[in-house]
Amino acid sequence: MTATIIDGKAVSNQILEELKAEVDLLREKGQQPGLAVILVGDDPASQVYVRNKERACKKLGIFSSKYCLPDTTPEEELIQLIQKLNRDPNIHGILLQLPLPQAIDEKKVLDYISPNKDVDGFHPYNLGRLLAGDPIFLPCTPQGVQELLVRYQIPIEGQNVVIVGRSNIVGKPLAMMLVQKAKAANATVSLCHTRTKNLKEFTSRADILIVACGKARMVTADLVRPGAAVIDVGINRIDGKLVGDVDFEQVSQISSFITPVPGGVGPMTIAMLMKNTIKAAKRFWEGEATSFSF
Ligand code: BQF
Hints:
Blueprint lengths: L3 E2 L2 H21 L5 E7 L3 H17 L2 E7 L5 H13 L5 E4 L9 H5 L13 H8 L8 H12 L8 E5 L6 H9 L8 E5 L6 H5 L4 E4 L17 E4 L3 E3 L2 E3 L4 H4 L5 E2 L6 H21 L9
Parallel strand pairs: 1-11, 2-3, 2-4, 5-6, 5-7, 7-8, 8-11
Antiparallel strand pairs: 9-10
Helix pairs in contact: 1-10, 2-10, 6-7, 6-10
The site of ligand BQF has 12 residues, from helix 2 and helix 10.
């Protein structure tokens, strides 16, 4: 079997079109969603990601303001900026680009973003809502993966989904989303990681194999069940070239579906961020944003 290549760029462009129509409608009502993007330090990959996000905002007509802070920024100053943006009625989403410089306590700072403006879905409140089966803001990359499966009509319900990688940003929330009693879910999920005993025993039984382990080309064809759908979340730079966590050349020979890197999950992450930002703005205008005392 040779795989259908999942065109994440095309799907994301289609979603951005759909979202643009929504933003246009809001504009007629005099409303414009706003996203604040905070970049601390000068990590080149982060600069690319921030540029992608700003470009998407511009394309849709979402207001965006970028805050570039030096990597020597004291934690206290970053927290003050977040608190100012929490109060700003023209800002509906706050995106703190990760990773942060070593000296800053990422978890501590993320806790200051109002759950109402947490368009990355990283605040413990939003993670808790997901765990409780009543999510508000879902993390962008897991949401992008789920959306790709849906748009390519890859069955999820009752399927064996195996996720390799247990990060708080991808693996863990995605496992929770796909195991949920909900649409585009109801899967049997295995969450594998660096301490998994006999990884192949799991991956070779996957109907849907999702890889987000951060190791270039780690998943080779011998780990994959022929006919499985393979979603590669990895982004690794290897001598100037972007490669995923899946050995694309090998695995695309035997899988039913596969996402390329670049052009697979990556563009979907950006589209889901735009979706969350519009949702945050609508919740604000419709008075659905909750009052928090933390
Ligand atoms: C593509 C990210 C690791 C750590 C922090 C399009 C993006 C990437 C790839 C992008 C990512 C990855 C983002 C492609 C945002 C996805 O064409 O394949 C877009 O901009 N991403 C991020 O903000 O932080 C990260 C990966």
